[in-house]
TrEMBL record:
Identification of the protein by name: Reverse transcriptase domain-containing protein
Pfam families: GIY-YIG, HTH_animal, RVT_1
Residues in Reverse transcriptase domain copies: 1-200
Record-linked PROSITE patterns: GIY_YIG (PS50164), RT_POL (PS50878)
Gene3D superfamilies: GIY-YIG endonuclease
SUPFAM superfamilies: DNA/RNA polymerases, GIY-YIG endonuclease
Amino acid sequence: MEVCDAVLAHVVPPLSKTVRGTTDVLDKLGKIVWHGEYSWATLDVASLYSSIPHDKGLEAIKFHLDRYSKYTEELKGFLLQAIGFLLKHNYFLFNGQYYFQKCGTAMGAKFAPSFANLYMGWWEETHMTATSNQYLKFCIRYIDDLLCIWTGGEQKFREFVEGINTNDLNLRFTDTFSKDEIEFLDVKLMTKANIIHTTIYRKPCSGITLLHAQSCHPKSQIAGIPIGQFLRLRRNCSTLGEYKTKANEMRDRFKERGYNNRLIQRAYTRAENTDRDILLAPQNKTYKKEFGQKISFITRYSRQYKKIVKTVKKFLPILYADSDFCRILIPGIGCVARHAYTLGDSLSPSLFKEKNNSKQEFLRYSGCFKCGHNRCVTCKYLKVSGEFNSTVTTTTYKIKQYINCCSKGIVYLITCTKCGKQYVGCTTRSLKERIREHINQVSNIKLSSKTNVTRHFQECNNSNLQYFSIQGIEQIKTGIRGGDLLRYIDLLDFSPTNQVDVTCYI
């Protein structure tokens, strides 16, 4: 998906009517001389992402690859196959049910904006009629939002909209027409004395979404928000007087969110003294990852974030002993803080599922028990108990579910009863299948060095299985996104110096 997005992103810039954002819009409008017969108009595609037919979308991609790229035919074929696969394997989960999306692409897909952009670019170049274009003096587009300057009057514009709504591309346009002013993206456009004026635009339903000053985020991020917002305001307002008017409203919103006057005033003054032409100048941002770029250390933000970063940087030179690590880490590392856990993460999970109050377990007994089968090898070594003990932390934990040899998705504990060392493993198969493998490996002298478990029993007790003890300590009910099968490895304080080993599940 990332490969498709990277390739398509390079094809989007040549599109003549495409803009990258508000700055690009204001830059293009600044070059226009307004005339009395001009009118504003906007067009918006209803549900673009979910409306693009797969075959038409691939046809649009092929059109742009052939016209604007220098890729080989083999690479073009590969890209079309890859995009086709992504489009035709687009499913999602809601309330425990899987749904397949037959038309369009998911809005969260990485390549979706570029895909939609190219589809609209294809529509512009091949389906906009020349007869209607005679009244279209100016047109720019940001993905599915179009801004137009029209000269033919409102009736002609309605006919134009009706014409473009008659198409075989599954596109449906909504429109707005105005002689004097109109809203587009986050700016309001007005004309006075044949001059285009702009100001910031907030939807009537917009709430105060500014991050609270007391939020658990880095201080530098909190301090940077007023600066960014006031600079954005200065950019969107064409006159200094309009900036001051809107800045007073923004000042009140920041105060409501707990920002102090000094921080607000500093941001206000900086934006006021900034030349608007500098803010409107195009910025060519490149995201090329060079060989010597710093590796990112990403962790969740907390009050201990600075101490964690300081500790990581302090002991980073330890890794320089390895030649490969040294080559990669010598330039240093960049530390990035992800947002801290919030109440919203717990109260509003992204995976929706209705609550089911019915009890899933019919057995009232909890603990680890033998299955009782005559031929079960595991039963002989299984310790029947309702609790287990860590020989490192000396802490006793209760086994909260009913587990026997036939249970699946088990975190298990192997204990060497001679020396007390322990091993935590986990398996998605039945417990007896996995333990039978351990027993066979320990008892087979040819396999005595295969795993850490077999090596320990060979060195400690000459592979004597009478010291081999096994317990199932938790059954993980894995959800759609998997379960925490390795939690007990950290909980029991397992490390190579204290215990036998930790393992991946099999």
